[in-house]
Structures are given as C-alpha cells and as structure tokens.
Write a structure and sequence with these properties.
single chain, about 450 residues, mainly alpha, three-stranded antiparallel beta sheet, 19 helices, 6 strands, about 50% helix, about 5% strand, binds carboxymethyl coenzyme *A
C-alpha cells in the first residue's frame, strides 16, 4: 500500500488529498472516488482518456513501446509457442496449464461445443441476409434462455460452467450464422479436431464433403485467435464489465460485448479494411486514399490504422504481417493484389508527416482481413471471428470483476448542460409559449 498522495487545489485552495496506488507496471492511479463527497465536483473524462475503470491482473499494454502481455507473457511468444486453448487457460486461471490441466481443459471445452438443438429455430427467424453479427448478438444472449443451470453469478461452479460454455459454443454459433446465410445445413462440431480446425470444419464442410485443410492454415487461425483473445479495458470489455456490474447473467453480458465490438472503430474495422482495400483497387490509387484520410473535411479514416493505446506499431499487427505472408505463400497467392495495396498503404503512411506526428500505425485489423479472405472466410464473418477469440477475454474480465470485493454497479455521472427547471405547459398553450420564447 502506497502512502503517496495527490492534492487537488480548487479556486486556489487545497481542497482534497487523494491516495495514489502504484501499478506493478505502467501508470499509477489517483483515487478520486471521494472527490464528489469531499468537494461537490465530479471528474470529467469523456472517452476515458485518463481514467482507469478497474483494477486488473489479466492483460498489460504499453502503448508507447508496443508491448502486449497476457498474465506477464509476451504476445509474440504466445503466438509462436502456445495454442489458443492454453491461452484461454492462462487468461481464465492466471497460469499456463501443465499437461494434466491442459488435457482436462481441452476435454471440458470440447465437451461443450454443441448447442441446444432448439437454437436452430432462433436462426431460422432471421432473414438470410442478416449480418452474422446481428445474429450473434441475439444468439449469445439467448443462451441464457437455454442454460438455466449456469446463470447464478454468485455460484462459483455455475460461473465456471457458463465460461466453458461460452468459449466452446461461440465457434458453433458463428459457423451456424454463416451456414444459414448461404442456405447450407448446419454442421455439427467434430470433437476430434482442435478448436481452430473444428471452426473451419463447421464453416466449410458439408454433409456430402469433408473439409480438408493444411496444418499451416489451422496454425494461422489459431494464432489469430490468440492475438485477439484479450486487450484489457477496451470498449467491448468495458461494456461487458458495465453490463455485469448490475448482476446481469454472463450470456447477456457477452451479448452486450458483441454489440459493442461490432462498431467500425472497434472490431468492425477488420471488415472495413477489406472494403477500403477493394475500393482503392490498385496500388496506383493509394496516395489518393492517403490524401482523403488526411483531409479534415472528409470523414474517411484509414481503416486498420491508429489506436487509442498504441502509439507505436501494434505488436499484434507485426505478428499478423508475417503470418499473412506465410498464409498467402501456403495457398499460392503470392500476388494477391490486396496485400500489395496494403503494403504500399503502410509504406506511404509510415513516411507521411500526418501519420508520423499523430503516431498512427497499423493495428491488429490491418492484416487480419487479408488472411481471412485468403482462407475463404467471407467478409461478414471477420468481426464474428474477433468475437470468438475475444470471448475468453470478456469472460476472464467478467469473472475478475464478479470476484473483486471492490466491485460496485458501474454508474458514471455527467456534466449537465440542459434546461433548468421549467413549468409544464398544456398542449393547447404551447404554440403561444414557443412564440413568446422566440421573440
Ligand atoms: N486515419 C486518419 N486519421 C486518423 C486515424 C485514421 N485511421 N486515426 C486517428 N486519426 C487522427 C484523428 O483524426 C486525430 O487527428 P487530429 O488530432 O488532427 O484531430 C488524431 O489522429 C487522433 O485520433 P482520435 O480519434 O482522437 O484517436 P482515438 O484514440 O479516439 O481513436 C481509433 C482511436 C482506433 C478509433 C482511431 O484511430 C480510428 O478510428 N482508427 C480507424 C479504425 C480502426 O482501425 N479501428 C480498429 C482499432 S484496433 C482493434 C480494436 O482493438 O478494436
């Protein structure tokens, strides 16, 4: 426990001493929880630019140095040497599993990959053209209607069961959303396959034909899952925590997280990157696109570029850039035009003053879409894949919150700038009242 304090001076008078808590790494925090009680002021920080919303031991990011660690392990190390289910174990329980724990965890996840058969009727209620993220928001939240034995958030065993269920069932639900959109029968999970291969199997096998895939592609998919598994208090994770702080059940909370992830400023960017690269169409048009991104009168942004936390190359993008080359080589697609456009875009942007001054670098979404596309995954599934991987992060963060005795319902305050108190005017007199106030 630290004894350092910060003193806040209001109107020239020292008004309040606030304790400082030291982080094990990264910025320490000033505890402002008594600010309102002792001064009558709220703090004001739209977008949480300077606000730590919780204490956490799961993921550490140093945005200036381009560092990302899960439970102390560097992301590049995990992507190279571990696998997704090991990483899930690490995020959920704090440690990489030994062999026995690993076998048990793999068994537990595998055992929960099927979904309630009645869920297919929920899917059939959606138009075929529905965006798979729209289906996922509903399907995941609807698990709370099917699995009543894992809704009690105060029961540790039920929390564990809901965690396993969500991680295990996400690929099944995602592949069902795809199969439904193209009018093919749903494919059941095959528990002999690894997590990543099983997902590809449910996406691309049919009852008439098995899906054969090279181990290099499975390994690239596994890597993608690892890289997206957690990212501390991002928008969707904060949404999950906020939803969960009211005591809502975990399936509903993850449904809320998926909704938040969908936006193009967050997980939806991977889909937007491919649309952007396709729109550019040719390496010769890259500079036009850069010009648009710099134009303050044009809302267009370079998708897959920039990050609230990283002011350096996103370490996930470094791994993915390499992986992108490996996948394209494996599939004999060395001349993929979109990769050429992406590389040129990156080259020009990284030399351009606008991007250099604002420290805008490629983020995780810049190369992931090109890999997914090469694997034959349709664009609308990219953000769904992000959700499959991030589910473990959401669940780990949700559990940490539920188990933290400091947790309170999340209830931000506001700077109110609306009307002062007014008298109610009956409808027949409102015209005259409006005319008076306009005069
Ligand atoms: N293209 C052009 N200009 C940009 C971009 C971009 N991609 N990103 C930021 N800027 C500019 C922005 O206009 C602003 O300029 P100025 O200071 O002159 O007003 C400055 O850089 C700072 O931007 P900001 O919007 O204040 O930064 P932020 O931290 O609020 O936003 C971001 C971060 C990721 C929303 C933003 O960089 C962005 O919209 N990027 C494109 C979308 C994207 O790739 N999102 C995926 C994020 S990574 C995956 C994930 O974790 O979800």
């Amino acid at each position: 426990m630290t004894h350092r304090t910060a003193t806040l001076t209001i109107d020239g008078k020292p008004s309040i001493e606030m304790p400082i808590y030291d982080a094990s790494e990264g910025p320490s925090v000033i505890d402002i929880s008594k600010l309102y009680g002792q001064t009558g002021y709220f703090s004001y920080d739209p977008g949480f630019l300077s606000t730590a919303s919780c204490e956490s031991k799961i993921t550490y990011i140093d945005g200036d140095k381009g560092i990302l660690r899960y439970r102390g392990y560097d992301i590049a190390d995990l992507a190279e040497k571990s696998n997704f289910l090991e990483v899930c174990h690490l995020l959920l329980y704090g440690e990489l599993p030994d062999q026995k724990e690993r076998d048990q965890f793999e068994h537990d996840i595998t055992y929960h990959t099927m979904v309630h058969e009645q869920l297919q009727f929920l899917y059939r209620g959606f138009p075929r053209r529905a965006h798979p993220m729209a289906i996922m928001v509903g399907a995941v939240a609807s698990l709370s209607a099917f699995y009543h034995d894992s809704l009690n958030i105060y029961d540790e065993k039920q929390r564990e069961l809901s965690a396993l269920r969500m991680i295990a069932k996400m690929p099944t639900l995602a592949a069902m959303a795809y199969k439904y959109s193209i009018g093919q029968p749903f494919i059941y999970p095959n528990n002999e396959l690894s997590f990543a291969e099983n997902f590809l199997h449910m996406m691309f096998a049919t009852p008439c034909e098995k899906y054969k895939v090279s181990p290099k592609i499975v390994s690239a998919m596994d890597k993608l899952l690892i890289l997206h598994a957690d990212h501390e208090q991002n928008a969707s994770t904060s949404t999950v925590r906020l939803a969960g702080s009211s005591g809502a059940n975990p399936f509903a909370c993850i449904g809320a997280g998926i909704a938040s992830l969908w936006g193009p400023a967050h997980g939806g960017a991977n889909e937007a990157v491919i649309s952007m690269l396709e729109e550019i169409g040719d390496v010769s048009k890259v500079s036009e696109c850069i010009k648009r991104a710099k134009d303050k009168n044009d809302p267009f942004r370079l998708m897959g570029f920039g990050h609230r936390v990283y002011k350096n190359y996103d370490p996930r993008a470094s791994v993915l850039k390499e992986s992108c080359h490996e996948v394209l080589d494996e599939l004999g697609m060395h001349n993929e035009p979109l990769l050429k456009i992406a590389l040129e875009l990156e080259r020009i942007a990284l030399e351009d003053d606008y991007f250099v001054q604002r420290k805008l670098y490629p983020n995780v979404d810049f190369y992931s879409g090109i890999i997914y596309r090469a694997m034959g995954i349709p664009t609308q599934i990219y953000t769904v894949l992000f959700a499959i991987a991030r589910t473990v992060g959401w669940v780990a963060q949700w559990r940490e919150m539920i188990e933290d005795p400091q947790t309170k319902i999340g209830r931000p305050r506001q700077l109110f700038t609306g009307s002062a108190s007014r008298e109610f005017v009956p409808v027949e007199k409102r015209g005259a009242a409006k005319a008076r106030s306009a005069a």
